[in-house]
Amino acid sequence: NAGVMQNPRHLVRRRGQEARLRCSPMKGHSHVYWYRQLPEEGLKFMVYLQKENIIDESGMPKERFSAEFPKEGPSILRIQQVVRGDSAAYFCASVKTSGYTDTQYFGPGTRLTVL
Amino acid sequence: AQSVTQPDIHITVSEGASLELRCNYSYGATPYLFWYVQSPGQGLQLLLKYFSGDTLVQGIKGFEAEFKRSQSSFNLRKPSVHWSDAAEYFCAVVPSQTGANNLFFGTGTRLTVIP
Fold it and tell me: Does A41 sit within 8 Å of B100, measured CB to CB?
């Protein structure tokens, strides 16, 4: 049973470019969380999605960031016009249901570097 | 303000020695409590979790944690550390009163194990 997959593992972008980060949840999981880890900090919640629905985007910056989780295919976190401050590790976690007792399984992360 | 505090940024222990990593939280009601471990370049792995009941929780890899309501703490312990335990450890909570299930993380404690 494959775990949560994220790609690419490393992504380098120049300022002003777009970054697309992908997350494939574990089989049977229909809920995905995205977290961002800035250098020397803990993870911070960004957005929570169910297939075809954004449930909670309270942690997402208001501009340049968007997320989706289509009926088919991976969840995508999209960052437009990247800036140096976007350099971070981005983790997704998948969970089977919306219940708090369900364990969130984390992917290996995408490390974004903005030059 | 609501927060998760890990007061020790970096801890060094000798292999075979005991370990205690501290975690304090400040939330109005007792949150749901978690400890995760992150090895270099990897995602997070759940060590253990506490929702209710017995305040001493057993986890994987020989770890345990004790919930102390009076101290708002959830410290992680291991009686004998192995070199493979070197990693970053994160305490996390889900506030029980919000209805949301996203995790709030502390800033982490980096564990170094010396031979």
Answer: no
Question: If 0-12 CB within 10 Å is exposed, 13-18 middle and 19+ buried, where does residue A68 land?
Answer: middle
Q: Is the previous residue joined to B7 through a cis bond, with omega within 30 degrees of 0? A: no
Q: What is the pLDDT confidence band of residue B1, given thresholds at 50, 70 and 90?
A: low
DSSP B72-114: TEEEEEESS--GGG-EEEEEEEE-TTSS----EE---EEEEEE
Give the nearest partner residue to A106 out of B44, B94, B104, using CB atoms: B44
Predicted confidence (pLDDT) per residue in B31-44, tens digit:
889 999 998 878 89
Q: How far is the alpha carbon of A41 from chain B, nearest alpha carbon, in Å?
A: 5
Say if residue B99's pLDDT is above 80.
Answer: no
The 3-state secondary structure of B22-78 reads CCEEECCCCCEEEEEEECCCCCEEEEEEECCCCCEEECHHHCEEEEEHHHCEEEEEE
Per-residue DSSP letter, A32:
E
Whether B104 contacts B95, CB under 8 Å: yes
Q: Which B positions 47-106 lie with beta carbon below 8 A of chain A?
A: 49, 51, 90, 92, 94, 96, 100-106
Question: Tokens 């986890």 map to which residue?
Answer: B59
**d(Cα B98, Cα B37) in Å, to the nearest integer?**
25
Calpha distance B18→A99 (Å, rounded) = 35
Q: Is the pLDDT of residue B72 over 70?
A: yes
Q: Which amino acid is at A17?
A: Q
